[in-house]
Design a protein that fits this description.
Order of helices and strands: HHHEEHHHEHEEHEEHHHHHHHHHHEE
Structural class: alpha/beta
Shape: elongated
Mean pLDDT: 86
Helix content: 40-55%
Strand order of the largest sheet: 5-4-3-6-7
Largest sheet: 5 strands, mixed
Low-confidence stretches: 84-92
Distance between the termini: 66 Å
Length: about 525
């Protein structure tokens, strides 16, 4: 819409115009004034809606979105209802009863396990109650859980007795107990430092203060030296993860900003790129998932090119899931592109308060698609079965949605430049990529897995603020990749990092045997 023509009126002229409108005695030029008023009101209304949407996005960036669930975005409808139905048409569902909030004893997989036998009885003894039966051991014992507090890194001081001859002066020292080792910091301490720093976002200085307060000093500089030493011992596994991820069927990627002080201080050249990113890459092959992080000047698309160059030439192009940002696309290599449906949905969530009815239909339609995808996962469908199920159940829903959105633009029901119009245009312009799950097996609906992985890098940025050097960024990427891959594989990251260091000689020879899914915690070794 064009900017209205500027017409300056004082209050007396406005009052005179209103009287002429009331009496029906309009004069020449009144039409242009009224038209300019209407256009101005429309322009202001649209600007307010756009500003409100921008403010909502800014608040979400600053404080995070608490929820995007349909029942909270638009509270006049039941999110379980099908598109076009009212909440009265659906039966009330009972809320699932809440649990007691306690963890079962079997959840304490990292706890010390101590078996306690009965003081006086054993299996096979006569029952002291009825005096007739025989006792047998029950499969499920009684569990008692006791939790004690301890420093993240605990120290043991061995006071080695020294004896000296009063005649010859020879000194005799006590022999250290077995298992003490030669190094001051063992493998477990290095694993704990890495896990606290790169897995939980605790800066070195903060851990230094904590350790000092409980009487076990651990300077920040020492922590960095230990973390660097651990990385030097296990980095072949990180490189092997990259090679394995390049062969997977589906690869997700996205970016978040990061700071590297060394790059920021050397950015005087105007031709040099200023942006610094942490790229999150998450690949899947059947049920196996790999998470990778890469920090530097390169954006997500360029890091994807580096990764896919490791892909075997006889493999077909992978499915790439990302949002529609151009820098996420690998320009030099071919992938089967899928765009994030949740990203497109979020555009309607942002304007739902201004356009509740049109947005409600879109959100309810997408809710049906996500419901179908959940059913496919719960029934453990194969990739081909999931594709056929979506084509049968989700295909008609998406076809109706596309027709409705196109009609709204074609019939001028929605202004193209409004927030709703832009959301509709985005979805229609990327329709093929957004609906790849209706065309290709294994195609995901959204990029949520990668965005969840990137939260680990965002947590580090929030607490540590920056990396000092590119080498420090590489160390962070290595540990975040291993830690998050362990989480995706259901592996104890602390034990895994500890075992890798203890078997570093074997690891350097065959890193493929020491990946998280090959890790066997029962015997602290890797399987072939």
């Amino acid at each position: 819409m064009k900017t209205p023509e500027r017409i300056d009126l004082d209050l007396d002229q406005v009052d005179a115009l209103l009287k002429r409108v009331e009496t029906g005695s309009l004069q020449d030029g009144d039409y242009q004034i009224i038209k300019a008023m209407v256009e101005t009101i429309h322009l202001l209304s649209r600007s307010v809606d756009q500003k409100a949407t921008s403010i909502k996005r800014l608040l979400r960036m600053l404080f995070g979105e608490r929820t995007e669930k349909l029942k909270d975005v638009i509270k006049t409808k039941d999110p379980s209802a099908k598109p076009g139905t009212s909440s009265e048409d659906t039966s009330d569902k009972k809320d699932k009863p809440k649990g007691h909030g306690r963890n079962a004893a079997v959840e304490y997989t990292g706890a010390d396990q101590i078996n306690v036998s009965h003081e006086t009885l054993k299996p096979g003894d006569n029952c002291s109650g009825c005096l007739k039966g025989k006792l047998y051991e029950m499969k499920v014992p009684k569990f008692v859980v006791r939790i004690t507090g301890k420093a993240p890194l605990h120290a043991t001081v061995y006071r080695m007795q020294k004896l000296r001859c009063n005649l010859c002066g020879e000194i005799f020292k006590a022999t250290p107990p077995d298992g003490v080792g030669e190094e001051k910091y063992d493998e477990a301490s290095g694993a704990m430092i890495a896990l606290l720093k790169y897995g939980s976002g605790m800066p070195f200085n903060r851990l230094e203060q904590l350790q000092a307060s409980i009487g076990v000093p651990l300077p920040a500089s020492t922590q960095w030296e230990i973390a660097e030493q651990v990385a030097n011992r296990i980095y072949p596994v990180y490189e092997e993860l990259k090679r394995q991820a390049a062969q997977d069927d589906v690869i997700y990627n996205d970016d978040t900003t990061m700071k590297i002080l060394a790059l920021m201080q050397n950015s005087d050249d105007p031709s040099e790129r200023k942006g610094i990113f942490t790229t999150g890459i998450l690949s899947t092959l059947n049920d196996r998932k790999i998470a990778l992080f890469c920090t530097g000047r390169k954006h997500a698309g360029e890091n994807m090119v580096d990764l896919l160059e490791k892909r075997q030439t006889d493999r077909s192009p992978p499915i790439q899931m990302c949002d529609a940002l151009s820098r996420n696309m690998p320009q030099a290599l071919k992938t089967i592109l899928a765009n994030c449906l949740a990203h497109s949905r979020r555009k309607f969530v942002d304007v739902a308060s201004s356009f509740p009815e049109p947005c409600l239909y879109v959100l309810e339609s997408l809710a049906e698609v996500y419901k179908n995808d959940k059913i496919a996962k719960e029934q453990h469908m194969t990739a081909d079965q999931r594709l056929a199920f979506h084509q049968r159940e989700s295909g008609p829903v998406m076809d109706k949605l596309k027709i409705r959105l196109a009609n709204q633009l074609d019939q001028n029901e929605v202004e193209p430049n409004s927030g709703l119009g832009q959301a509709i245009s985005y979805m229609l312009n990327h329709w093929k990529q957004l609906t790849l799950f209706l065309q290709e097996p294994n195609a995901p609906l959204d990029n949520n897995l990668c965005e969840q992985a990137l939260k680990r890098a965002i947590l580090h940025r929030k607490n540590a603020m920056f990396y000092k050097t590119e080498h420090g960024a590489y160390i962070g990427d290595l540990f975040m990749s291993l830690i998050h891959t362990c989480k995706l594989s259901g592996v104890n990251a602390f034990d895994y990092l500890t075992v890798l260091q203890r078997h570093r000689s074997e690891l350097f020879k065959h890193p493929e045997k020491w990946l998280p899914w090959n890790y066997n915690p029962s015997d602290s070794s890797a399987t072939a």
